[in-house]
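Researcher: I'm preparing a figure for a lab meeting and need a structural model of a single chain. I don't have an experimental structure, so a prediction will have to do for now. The sequence is pasted below. Please return the structure as tokens so I can convert it later.
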Amino acid sequence: PLLSTQLLLLHPRKIFYNEKALKDISKITNSSYRSWSYPRYPSRLIWIDTSTGMICKNHNPAEIKKIKQEIIEFQTWARSQKKQYSILVISFYEKQRRALRDMLRVLCQAPRKQTRFSLDNLSIGCYTVDRVQGREADLVFLSMVRNKGIGFMDNSNRLNVSLTRARFQQIIVGDYDHFTSRGVPSLLRKIANSVTKW
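Model: Understood. Here is the structure written out token by token.
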């Protein structure tokens, strides 16, 4: 997968690959490769905090609401660009994925349950982390869901997949304080502490 220079602030190349894989976009000379000019966020990798959100059995409505708002913001900007853009909305949990899918179905006025959606000039995919391997998109939203415990997220393979799908912009949505707390395993805590909180 491609990884932008700013996304390398997280250093997944170091964490997961010993700096032997992942391409840095600054070293790609293909002049036709698009630049990224979406001005909403201060960096290419941010964490949107949802500390006040309540969860129930691996389902977090606050994160779904925030992701919907951010997609609408991006839709407004993308419409003015007159280019095609791709989005991935992913979560570690199937119940959250289904709820995200239902939100996208309403937002995109889709007639049936599906994993791919269209909204103006946006192509949107909705998957669990386990099902998204091999896919990538311009903009990726990762819903963390949990604000107690970590479930099965402390798995380097899953974390690697979740953090290397974005071509240009990665947005992590979750309870920032929880994932930076001492009770969270060191790898997750290291990732959270490496991300710009927004």
